[in-house]
Design brief:
The chain is mainly alpha-helical. About 80% of the residues lie in helices and about 0% in strands. The chain has 2 domains: about 190 residues, MFS general substrate transporter like domains (Growth Hormone, Chain: A, Up-down Bundle); about 200 residues, MFS general substrate transporter like domains (Growth Hormone, Chain: A, Up-down Bundle). Helix 12 packs antiparallel against helix 15.
Length: about 400
Amino acid sequence: MRTALSTGARKAAGRTRLSPLLRLLIVTQLAFNLGFYAVLPFLAAHLGQAMGMAGWLVGLVLGLRTFSQQGLFVVGGALADRYGIRPVVLAGCALRIAGFVWLGHAERTWAVICAVVLIGFAAALFSPAVESEVARQAVVWEEAGGGPRTRVLALFTVAGQAGAFVGPLLGALLLAVDFRTACLAGAGVFVLVLAGHARLLPQRIPGRDRTPVRGGLRMVLRNRPFLGLCCAFGAYLLAYNQLYLALPAEVERVTGSQTALAWLFALSSLLVVTAQLPVTRWVGERLAMRRSMASGLLLVAVGFATVAAARPAGWSGTAGLVPAAGFVVLLTLGQMLVVPVARAWVPDLAEEGRLGLYTGALSSVSGLIVLVGSSATGMLLDAGLPPTVPWLALAGATGAAAVLLPRRA
């Protein structure tokens, strides 16, 4: 892969506009996250406080939602390859609407479980379909002289992050009425998405042929370069998951509460929204995919090491938050390098006609790594070891994952 764009290519990139399909899919990602994050961040409190569920049951419900989404991405991707993205996206939107409406009216445990599984499975349908088509269209855009495909994937990431940032704010306003109102508003967003896609999404997209499902998973399991990418991406996702596991424990330790977490999350979102595109443009002109992703993983590893190095000093209060803030900044910078490149790399490693399957498999395999790795991290945090050990272990695992990246572009 080229590591630098010529002056002519940069000029062409400035003139080349995204296709209507790409613009639709990028706006779709924003709308997906807007509707999702208007509801789901408040689900645990609703189940525990309003419905009186025990903590273990709340955890089970949330875990089932994650499994029905991440774990089944590979199914949604395979269906997108077989039937095209239009029917899969429309079906996913319809199921998400039904799930949110059901969740808003659910008053029994079984109804809540069914609703959240439906919500998760809906995303397992539409997300890999949309993500795989964005990746494919990004390659088309690159080959037409628009510039590195990572720029398109970076814009896709920014749109999703913007939706994730605004969604909870919308949900918090709606919760002033009640949780059902927030659910119905989330459903309303997906009604608009469904209507827009029914009208604007093409029946058939040129260059995307329908591929039988049979035999695809066997190809994935034999594709060692792709599995290496999955493992490296899974290591990044495990690191990102520490925003919800190791970081809250650290903030609680240094401040006595978790109030500062909201500010650290806002810092991460703000960095992605404002800096993702400039960072991707700068890196795309200088680094190949492997070097870019490896650099991102090493930045994240340095973030973990920063907290580990500061622990012996025993800082507390505002000063104690400085290493945590440094970790968030380095993790977010690493995310800017890793996520667009991982998505952009999949088309180069996927078998012909199976981009949806491979896009889904990237999420499913890496999600399984996060599931196992998060359990191990929790054990380290609770094992009574010296406080630097869990952070150093995470730094080592993240940095070592760079070795697993494919050698070829």
